[in-house]
Design a protein that fits this description.
The chain is mostly helical. It has 13 helices and no strands.
């Protein structure tokens, strides 16, 4: 019996995944769903303004977050930072505006690459604004990341400096959002922070679309646009899928960090660049040029170095 018990225990250990592997699997799933969200936004963006995509993405999310809060009320924490909470919502919404717009003008691969430079800016802003000390490995990662940006930031014949700057703006605003979340986590339930972001992602697009009705002559601005009523059931299903894939990705992302150190799990998140690039090629985008591939590789190296540096602290 003793031998049998030992064999069963050994078999159970082999069949059960360690926490680290579960975290990696969840992060891979999250990046895949985020890539699908980007792919859906590219498809829907051919027929609807990007701010309408932001609106529907957050409407779907609010319904599920609202249900979660109804089932389990928000936890009350000491103090409050209402101004910072609103700021996080506004900045997060603007980053979504820029992300969906940059996907249309830059393509999935390039837009995703720009988006995932945010850890580089996060480390730099933490040093500039919060006085956090950076180790040599982190400074090296920042240098490698910026070198990668130089390879990607190449205004081609059909891509202006303005469009590249918007793509890079996604990363900067994402870094600012994450800085604010660090402080908000001490004062608010995580769902309250997410809800504030989603409510902002509903109110701001409504204001933008109202501006589009008042100023119909403005046609080429990602901040202003007119609402287009979806008539095809496929478009309605697309908007539903847009919200659901983003929500599932966010849930898997959050859960992944409970299984291992945040730095190691965050390094796996760079698989989003690969998923988005492959999806972009499937959707008809050109294969990335050689300088673009070098830039992607350098940005991934820089981001992984920062993530692993955080994990070792």
């Amino acid at each position: 019996m003793h031998k049998k018990s030992i064999l069963l225990t050994a078999l159970a250990k082999r069949l059960s995944l360690p926490h680290q592997q579960k975290g990696i699997q969840l992060m891979l799933g999250a990046t895949l769903f985020f890539a699908l969200t980007s792919g859906l936004s590219k498809w829907l963006g051919r027929h609807f303004p990007t701010l309408e995509l932001v609106f529907f993405r957050n409407v779907v999310g609010v319904l599920f977050i609202g249900y979660s809060i109804w089932k389990r009320p928000l936890q009350q924490k000491s103090g409050g930072k209402l101004g910072l909470l609103v700021f996080r919502g506004v900045v997060g919404t603007l980053s979504l505006y820029m992300l969906f717009y940059s996907i249309q003008v830059l393509g999935l691969g390039r837009a995703s690459t720009y988006q995932y430079t945010y850890p580089i800016f996060l480390a730099l802003l933490s040093w500039l604004l919060l006085g956090e000390k950076l180790r040599f490995q982190e400074w090296l990662a920042i240098g490698i990341g910026f070198l990668g940006i130089l390879f990607v930031f190449r205004p081609d014949l059909d891509m202006s400096v303005h469009d590249h700057a918007l793509g890079l703006g996604v990363a900067i605003l994402t870094a600012v959002s994450y800085l604010s979340i660090r402080h908000l986590g001490h004062h608010y339930d995580v769902r309250a922070i997410i809800l504030s972001f989603m409510l902002s992602g509903i109110i701001m697009p409504l204001a933008s679309m109202a501006g589009g009705e008042l100023f119909p002559e403005i046609t080429d601005n990602f901040l202003i646009g007119r609402f287009i009523l979806p008539l095809s059931p496929y478009h309605w299903l697309g908007f539903l899928a847009l919200g659901l894939t983003a929500l599932i990705g966010q849930k898997m992302l959050t859960e992944s960090f409970t299984y291992d150190k945040a730095g190691r799990i965050a390094a796996i998140g760079y698989s989003n660049i690969l998923f988005s690039s492959v999806l972009g090629i499937i959707m008809g985008e050109a294969f990335p040029s050689f300088p673009m591939l070098i830039g992607m590789l350098l940005i991934i190296m820089g981001g992984v170095l920062i993530a692993l540096s955080k994990a070792s602290k």
